[in-house]
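User: For a teaching handout, I'd like to show students what a predicted protein-ligand complex looks like in token form. I'll give you the sequence and the SMILES for zinc ion. Please answer with just the structure.
Assistant: Understood, here is the input followed by the structure.
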Amino acid sequence: MDTNPRVPAVQEAAREGPRSAPGKERPAPSASGTPFSGIRVGSFAGFQITLDYSWFVIFFLIFGTFAGAILPAHAPGLEYPTYLILGFAGTVLFFVSLLGHELAHAFVARSKGIEVEGITLFIFGGMARTRSEAVTPGDEFQIAGVGPLASFAFAAIFYLAALVGTGQGLHGGMVVLAEYLAFLNFLLAIFNLLPGFPLDGGRLLRAAIWRITGSLRHATRVATTAGRGLGFGIIGLGIFAILAGGAFVGGLWFIFVGWFLSHAAGASYQQLLLRDVLGHLSARDAMTPDPETVGPDLPVERLVREFFLARPYNSFPVTQDGVVVGLVTLSQVKETPWEEWEGRVVADIMTSLSEVVVVEPETPMLEVLERLGEGDQRRILVAQEWELVGILSTTDVTRWLDRATLMEHSPPMPNDRSRESPDTTLSGRLS
Ligand SMILES: [Zn+2]
């Protein structure tokens, strides 16, 4: 067993991120971990709608297919600009119905007390970004199931519109559009019902196993394994389409979608393990207790000689009469010209308490993990009524994450407490 949990300074320093300039505003602690960056187009019923940059690729692919292939083939003899206008309208309507699918998830999730940050459309579909997961299999089942239901409803609406439009002698191009939108929404619903996590069907499967076995972890393992299998199957289909059918673009698309699905399934399971392991821990469990401290009046020159050069640590909490007042790091010393080391004291260069993240010993590790990204120091001080009791670094957290991978092969715990654990990990659902 490792009795000295602190690691040598070199290793720690390697993990230390760039320190931002003093006085710089702390970044907002939201949306960390989301792989998306894009354009916020507004909000609907309090849900922020974002278009990921990758979404423009799929928008123009579908626009091109509508305007350049489907409409000219099924409604021949129209003017070229008419194809463009109809194609554009059809593409917008398709994404409106995709948004409808995601909004259905979002509304039901919100009604179950789950905070929904917003909805992102990206190259493979859309996702409702939730701040936590369902707490019961019943909630999970309803949240997941309503998406495909919405897509079936859109399919029915567009199909009816095509029927009525034909009877009323509507423009032939519009009827073709309505028929295709009905078809696409039907496909969307069917595809999403495939039983592989994180597709809606995989979530339904997970909810069912969760209900039967009572173990969320076991259910997630089965559903994400199915998701990876499904992803590999789709990749196989893509390869087959290219080699046997000569459908290069379609095959390539299948390969991308399959790869994305299997990757997302694997990542979802890792996330759950993280929650499972960290969910039971508080800051006290992972912190290094009673760290060495320095006083605010200590000259920087002595700080370097007696502490940074003599100890394997690269940060020290600063305390005065047992009360924590700040944190001083090796990089702060490096930023100070050495000629000034004699004349300056720790208080001159340290990060003051208002800029350091301080948590209580009983703060859940999941919250600690989120707040680690908040400060600039990648350190969190653990204090009880301002009296320092420990320090937590990214290294301490990494050690617990290593445990998570160790536990991957252990059987599901008889008393699966993960449902009760607070959840701060972003999770999404694919459309
Ligand atoms: Zn969905």
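For the handout, you might add this sentence: Confidence is low (pLDDT under 50) at residues 1-35, 411-431.
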